[in-house]
Amino acid sequence: MICRPQEHARLSASVGAAVIFLSACAFDATGLGGEAGSGEAGSGESTSTDATGSGGGSSTTEGTTDSSAGSESEGVSGTTSTGAETTSDPSTSGAPTSDPTDPSTSTGVEPCDSPMTVYPDGDDDGFGDADGALETCDPPPGYVDMAGDCDDGNGSVYPGADEVCDGVDNDCDLKVDEYSAANSGACNGCKTVVDQDRVYYFCPDEDEWSGAVAWCALRGAQLVSINSEAEFNLVWSQIKSQAGDFWVGADDMQKEGAYVWADGTPLSKGNPGWAQGEPMGDGVFTELDCVVLGGGWLSMTPGRFRTALCDPIIDPGWVCEAELEG
Asked: 241 lies in a domain?
C-alpha cells in the first residue's frame, strides 16, 4: 500500500471551530489488476461526512477500506484471507513421515524377521484359544505360545488336565467323562473295569441301541466286540449279577443275516455264544438287526447272545469298550 497526500480539505463546521483534516491514502492497484484510483477491480470507495451529522459536505476517497469490517485483509501478494478458515497443503504440514527404504527417515524400529504365533490365554492355565492366533515378535500380555484350550474361560480345562466325572471335556480330547486316574470308579451310573490294554464300561441304565452307541462314542468307545473266551468271561463276570439284557456291538445292518462286531470281525452263526435257535434274524425275522447278551436273571437267554429289535419295547443296558490310553 502506498500512502501519499492527495488532498487537504479544510471544512469549517458551522457550529464549532473544529477543523478536520483528511488525508487520503491510495492502494497500489498493481497487485489487483488495476491502477491506483482508477475505480476498477481492487479499488474501494468510502464516503465520510462531517462531524455535524448534517450530511453537509462529504468527501470520497478512493482505495480505502472499512476497518470495522475485520473480515478481510490484503497482503503484499494480493491473496485474501477471511480469518475464518485456513487451508494447508498436507505435503508441507510438518507431520513426520517415515520411508522404510530411506535411512534418513527411519523411525528406529527394526523389522521383525522371526515372528511367533501366540494365543490369548483368558484363564491363565498356560494354554490359549487357537481362534485368537496372533503373529508377532513381541507378544502382548495375556498371550501364550501353546494352543489347544477348549474352554478358555475355565482354568481347570486344558490339554493334559485330569478327566473327572463332571460332564465336561476336562482334557480337551473331544471325550467326556472317560476313564482316567482321577475317574476310575463308577460314573453316571456306569462301572469302569480295566483289563490289560482295554477299558470297559458296564451300564445298567436302559436305552435303545442308538442311544447306547452315542453314550459309548462320547467316551471314545464302542459297544463291546467279544472276540475271545477270555473277553467273554470278563464281560459275563460283570453282568451275571445284573437283571435284563445288555447291548453288545454286533448287528447285521450292512448285510442281512451277516452279523458283524463293531470292530469289523464277524459273529458267525456257529459261535457257541448264541442262544438256542439263534440267530433268528438270519433271513427269518429281518427286523431283528441288533444283538444283546442276557444278564444273570430276568433275561430269556442268560449268558447267551440273542437277536433283538434295535428299538425294543423294553430297553436293555449296554457294555462299551475302548483302548486304554496312557
From this structure: yes
Task: Please report which residue ranges of the chain form alpha helices under DSSP H.
Answer: 209-218, 229-239
DSSP string, 39-103: -STT--EEEEE-TTSS--SEEEEES---TTT-S-EE-TT--EE-SS-----GGGS------TT-G
Q: Are residues 203 and 267 in the same domain?
A: yes
Widest distance between CA atoms in the chain: 149
40 domain-assigned: yes
Domain termination residue (choose one: 159, 181, 214)? 159
Cα–Cα distance list, 216 to 51, 185, 210 (Å): 112, 16, 10
91 within a domain of the structure (yes/no):
no
Cell 436305552, located at residue:
207
279 prior amide bond cis, ω within 30:
yes
Lowest mean pLDDT among 68-82, 177-191, 309-323: 68-82
With a threshold of 0.85, does the pTM exceed it?
A: no
Residue at 168 is within a domain = no
Query: How many domains does one find in the chain?
Result: 3
201 and 143 in one domain?
Answer: no
Sequence-ordered list of residues with C-beta below 8 angstroms from that of 138, at least 6 positions apart, any chain:
112
pLDDT band at residue 115, thresholds of 50, 70 and 90? very high
Distance CA 290, CA 317 (A): 13
In this structure, the answer to whether residues 220 and 291 fall within a common structural domain is yes
Containing structural domain, residue 20: 1-69
Output the nine-digit C-alpha cell for 47: 464516503
Bigger pLDDT: 20 vs 174: 174
